[in-house]
# Entry
Amino acid sequence: MRQAGHKPSDVPRSVPVRLAGFFINMIADTPDSIQAYRMLALKGALKLESLGMRRSHGQSALGIVNGLGIKARTAKKALPLFEAKLRQEGILR
# Structure
């Protein structure tokens, strides 16, 4: 519900992202930054799958990562490979 006096243009477009233990604001307004945000969200989903959690619907994070070219049988084995790929692409440090 909108508060009185706020216009849609007053709403910030940044999304808080936790990276290396700190929350940062990330503005995803270009195709490259949207793809980077999607990869970071996929990394988080893969980490949760490696701990035993599952997605409620749709394809698993492991299946999506395997579709990106990383071949691993378990989420635990795929996570470091996917993180290495993100570092190579400059998304992670």
About this structure: The helical segments are 31-50, 61-67, 75-88. The CA atoms of residues 12 and 38 lie 19 Å apart. The mean pLDDT is 82. DSSP finds three helices and two strands in the chain.
